[in-house]
Description:
Blueprint: E1 2-5, H1 10-23, E2 28-30, H2 49-66, E3 73-82, E4 89-90, H3 98-103, H4 111-119, E5 127-137, E6 143-154, E7 171-173, H5 185-188, H6 192-206
Parallel strand pairs: 1-2, 1-3
Antiparallel strand pairs: 3-4, 3-5, 5-6, 6-7
Amino acid sequence: MVIIFGTTNERKIEDLRNVVKGFNLDLDIRSLTDIGWDLGDILENGSTLEENSLIKATAIYNFCKDNNISYPILTDDAGLFVESLNGEPGIYTARYAEEELLQNSSLPKYEGVNKLLRNLNGITNRNAYYKCVVTCMFQDGTYFQEFGISEGEIVENIVEPLRKPYFYSVFKLLNINKTFNLLSEEELKSTYRYSAFNKVLTKLNCK
Length: 207
């Protein structure tokens, strides 16, 4: 069975392939690059992760329909939600410091992390959670959504190594005294993104 995963991000694609291996499913994961996607970035103008994930799925579905491609489509959207900041950065996690970076090109690419730490300076409640929403859309346009959540807190300083996704360097998982960027591959398999994909693939396996 072929499934289109709506991304060009190689790390995300590898994550999904690892989940598929864990389920021992006969699935061929194809990226947007594999299907010849040439429409650039999809405008994610929804107000929730659920809406943005569906927006992406619908755009890819329409592209596939126009190009006689007929496979199920998976899309995801994820974000970091901080309780004391009213859910920021939330759906804007990937572009949390977009305005600052446009105004000052000398700022580091991880300026969003610096901004988050500044906004939390002096605040004792640092509770936060990561959430991922996955949409699975079929060839007839019907779809379902699943989500995964990892609860934790924001630490006071960046923990090295600092690499994408940058917020992993300041998010510590509940009951585990390590930031996300220090988790092993096995430990990551119980976190939010894997959880959401696990639920989706479980349903697909039943179809």
